[in-house]
Inverse folding.
């Protein structure tokens, strides 16, 4: 169930709503003992999304998910993923085969600038 088909201009509010939705996940949200959504990860995800909107008009809106450690992930229908951990400066971008394309990005702006490039490579 990916929402990554919407254009960013149509998906801005949907993506922000998804971030808000995952922010409400408490401990054990999946029934398997997963951590609650980490507030720092949620904040960073919002900043990332708004920066991404400012950096590109070609990026489609992603599905938003949480992982068992409380991090937030953006997942696009073409297989690209960005994981925003609750602490630390690591952002990972993965392709549709799960291969890490870029990791240890120290600056959110670098990650924002990378997404349009990766999406144009996939087109």
């Amino acid at each position: 169930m990916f929402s990554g088909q919407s254009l960013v201009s149509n998906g801005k509010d949907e993506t922000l709503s998804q971030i808000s939705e995952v922010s409400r996940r408490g401990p054990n949200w999946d029934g398997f003992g997963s951590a609650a959504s980490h507030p720092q990860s949620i904040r960073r995800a919002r900043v990332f999304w708004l920066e991404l909107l400012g950096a590109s008009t070609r990026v489609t809106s992603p599905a938003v998910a949480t992982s068992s450690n409380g991090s937030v992930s953006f997942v696009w229908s073409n297989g690209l993923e960005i994981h925003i951990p609750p602490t630390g400066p690591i952002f990972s971008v993965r392709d549709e085969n799960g291969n890490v394309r870029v990791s240890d990005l120290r600056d959110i702006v670098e990650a924002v600038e990378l997404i349009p490039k990766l999406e144009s490579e996939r087109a």
